[in-house]
């Protein structure tokens, strides 16, 4: 019997965080990754477990959820400039000054992250198989591609959002490893400044939204783009008679209040 290979769209879904609740989930994912797992940020600065900074006021936030378990696994934000300044410009200077038009039609991709807990979720198409076992060969194959698959799903959602909202270009400020994978997947990047030291070596690049949309990667998968988190909340309210549905890990319960 021939089995269709698992897909991102079959296993995951991307949401635009358009409510305070959704943004809190986004900040909690960042706290897990940047404070707990990687130690890039000081936990003491975020006693509420929400990793935030001044750029969030200028950002559009995205989330990735595992369909079968409901676990939130990844995040990304699009940062709009603050008074003709992008976050990466705090750490390096572009070869050429950015134009006024550029600041009005570009964003910086920032806080792209996937929680370590995602390793439990191989690309599976049924609920009964959603939790993979590390000793399984197919799991090992899936895990090698899982982080990148989630990253491409977030990229696709952010690209569609950008095209719909008059955003022509992206800036990314990334490590050599991430730049390698982005370039390998056929995304044309133009280096716009020298590499600098910020949590390791990072280099600024510029990408065209239209060129990203033309990548053949999107012909294979990632066709669902994104949903609004508020639509998810409305669906839950209808399904549970207006009562509040809360989630703790992979377990959900309906409050009686």
From TrEMBL:
Keywords: Acyltransferase, Transferase. This is PEP-CTERM/exosortase system-associated acyltransferase. SUPFAM superfamilies: Acyl-CoA N-acyltransferases (Nat). It comes from Methylomonas aurea. Pfam families: Acetyltransf_5. The keyword Cell cycle does not apply. One of its GO terms (molecular function) is acyltransferase activity.
């Amino acid at each position: 019997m021939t089995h269709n290979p698992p897909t991102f769209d079959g296993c995951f879904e991307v949401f635009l965080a358009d409510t305070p609740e959704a943004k809190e989930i986004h900040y909690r994912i960042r706290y897990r990754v940047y404070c707990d797992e990687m130690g890039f940020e000081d936990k003491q600065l975020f006693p509420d477990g929400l990793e935030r900074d001044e750029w969030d006021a200028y950002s559009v936030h995205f989330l990735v959820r595992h369909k079968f378990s409901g676990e939130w696994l990844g995040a990304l934000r699009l940062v709009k400039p603050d008074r003709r300044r992008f976050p990466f410009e705090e750490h390096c200077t572009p070869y050429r000054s950015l134009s006024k038009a550029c600041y009005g039609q570009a964003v910086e991709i920032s806080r792209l992250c996937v929680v370590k807990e995602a390793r439990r979720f191989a690309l599976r198409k049924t609920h009964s198989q959603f939790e993979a076992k590390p000793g399984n060969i197919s799991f090992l194959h899936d895990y090698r591609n899982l982080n990148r698959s989630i990253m491409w799903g977030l990229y696709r959602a952010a690209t569609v959002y950008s095209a719909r909202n008059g955003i022509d270009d992206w800036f990314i400020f990334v490590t050599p490893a991430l730049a390698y994978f982005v370039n390998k997947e056929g995304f044309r990047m133009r280096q716009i400044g020298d590499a600098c030291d910020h949590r390791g070596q990072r280099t600024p690049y510029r990408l065209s939204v239209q060129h990203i949309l033309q990548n053949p990667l999107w012909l294979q998968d990632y066709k669902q783009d994104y949903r609004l988190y508020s639509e998810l909340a409305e669906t839950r309210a209808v399904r549970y008679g207006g009562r509040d549905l809360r989630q703790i890990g992979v377990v959900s319960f309906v409050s009686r209040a």
